[in-house]
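thread: overnight batch results

M.L. [08:02]
morning all. the overnight job finished for the chain we discussed friday. pasting input first so we're all looking at the same thing
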Amino acid sequence: MCTQAFRDAIAACSAAGGGRVLVPAGTYLTGAIHLADDVELHLEAGATIRFSRDPADYLPVVHTRYEGIELMNYSPFVYARGRTNVAITGDGVIDGQADAGHWWDWSSDPPPTEGPDKKLLASMAEEGVPVEERVFGEGHHLRPNLIQLYECRNVLIEGVTVKDSPMWNIHPVLCTNVTVRRVTVDSPHGPNNDGCDPESCVDVLIERCEFNTGDDCVAIKAGKNADGRRLDAPSANVLVDSCVMRDGNGGVTIGSETTGGVSWVFAWNCTMSSPRLERAVRVKTNPERGGYVRDVYVKDVTVEQAADAVIEVALNYENKHTGPYFPDVGRIDIRRLRAGRAPRAFALIGNPGNPVRGLRVTSSVFEEMAEDDVVTDVTGLVLRNVWVNGRRV
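M.L. [08:03]
and the structure it wrote out:
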């Protein structure tokens, strides 16, 4: 176990004023790694950081976020909170080592599973229990993230391959100035194994990455329900540029945690293709989440194949059509999207009395769509120079 060695090297580097902690070629087993100000964790080619499968190696609990709700839980495997100038770089591999018998089995029956703890955490948030009293960790079953940078400024993740996280792979939260560049996420089998999920972050660049995931490739989030309203922290100014999306529920997704609001999202020059990639562009929320999604711009995206709708905007996520916090979703502009084969081009589902507003699609081609589109409770839909199955619509 190299946990103490990582801890000592990071502390010494930080004490010296910052710099690079070098991980040479080889395989290193460790528990949680906590980064410090002005420290770059650099993995040389041939280096693999392999994380322990023992939950005890991620204690004591830390302040973290689970599916949009703050709590005290197992430490993310690579973690920093309140730090400035932190980086994870190099050509090596960060391996969470999760599998069907470690971490992933907490996601579903048979017990022990995360279900009861998810309900308990949600009720604590609704009742306003202070975060410091929402203590999970040992004896509980809420899975940690592989990489989570929390309330950090100036974050760089570049070059590395990450794989087999307990759940979300890369999860910046409440961060400013985040760059994720030339990263490969190879985690196609795990439940909720999202690729990169910036949540309540401002000024984010995700470029030239490759995603092969067990859930959404990129999912932009902003907190959930009562806890999201308490923090009221949006995600804004997010650019996803020149990425390749393979397996996953969605290529570029917003939600389902939208409570703090999401705006000014740009997705350019991306390639998405797989018989298992369900949707290319997806917005998902519901009347319990609330918040807003607006000023979303997608252009020059190629989707060779998708397993569901190419473009989905669904305000009834989890089949919830009514509630006290209707989301405000609109001003979505999609240009020069080309899709080869999929069941349908569009699944656009608003709420009764709360429609999707102002979706515009221009200069786009959907070549082989097997079924009719689904469009309900939508206003201001503009299709200009759009072709479906060889016909202009």
